[in-house]
Amino acid sequence: SPMPDLSHLTEDERRIIESVLMRQRREEEQETEIVRRQADEVLLLETAIRQRSEQQRKAGAELDATCQLCLKTKFADGLGHACHYCNVRCCARCGGKVALRSSKVIWVCILCRKKQELVVKTGKWILP
User: Fold this and answer.
1) What one-character DSSP code corresponds to residue 78?
2) The RabBD domain covers which part of the protein (predicted)?
3) In terms of Cα–Cα distance, which of 121, 125, 111, 116 is closest to 42?
4) Which of the two ends of the chain, N or C, has the fewest CB atoms closer than 10 A to its terminal CB?
5) Closest among 55, 61, 59 to 74, alpha carbons compared
6) Residue 70: CA atoms inside 13 Å, Cβ hemisphere, count?
7) Which residues make Cβ contacts (< 8 Å) with residue 100, sequence separation at least 6?
8) Strand, coil or helix: what is 31?
9) For residues 77 and 63, what is the distance between their CA atoms, to the nearest angstrom?
10) How far apart are the first and last CA of the chain?
11) Measuring CA to CA, which residue among 127, 126, 121 is closest to residue 32?
12) Among 79, 84, 90, which Cα is nearest to 105's?
């Protein structure tokens, strides 16, 4: 964004304002970088999950009673929890309860939770 017209200010005032604007710009760049890293993390996680479940399927493994995210945890009840958003069945390490404003409690997997954090920061939903 263009610098505002500071010609009517004293040299000191101008220096102060310019340093504030520079600091603000640096902070915005850092925030952008953090969000970009989080977006990369979401995509990597998603890819890893997809590859793992494809490998499991090729091996003919029974996925029903196993967490679909870590593929390690076996569900005692054979079911686990289904994510409210993407329907993936996951264990308590790979998901958790989220209380909505309506005091309703839903189960959300880590992937959807990370996506939502990004939406909150960027206003954009990251598609799979």
Assistant:
1) S
2) 3-128
3) 111
4) N
5) 61
6) 13
7) 106
8) helix
9) 14
10) 32
11) 121
12) 84
Record the pTM: 0.62
Spatial distance between the Cα atoms of 3 and 98, rounded to a whole number of angstroms: 43
25: which 2 tokens? 């710009």
Closest CA to 31 of 122, 112, 116: 122
Distance CA 65, CA 67 (A): 7
Amino acid at 127: L
Domains of the chain, CATH where assigned: 11-126 (3.30.40)
State how far the Cα of 70 lies from the Cα of 4, in Å rounded to an integer: 52
Pairing of strands 95-99, 105-109: antiparallel
User: Each residue of 35-92: pLDDT tens digit?
Assistant: 889 889 888 888 888 887 788 777 766 656 788 888 888 887 767 889 999 888 889 9
Work out whether strand 95-99 and strand 89-90 pair parallel, antiparallel, or are unpaired. Answer: unpaired
Q: How far apart are CA 126 and CA 40, in angstroms?
A: 10
> Would you say 89 and 80 are in contact if contact means Cβ atoms under 8 Å apart?
yes
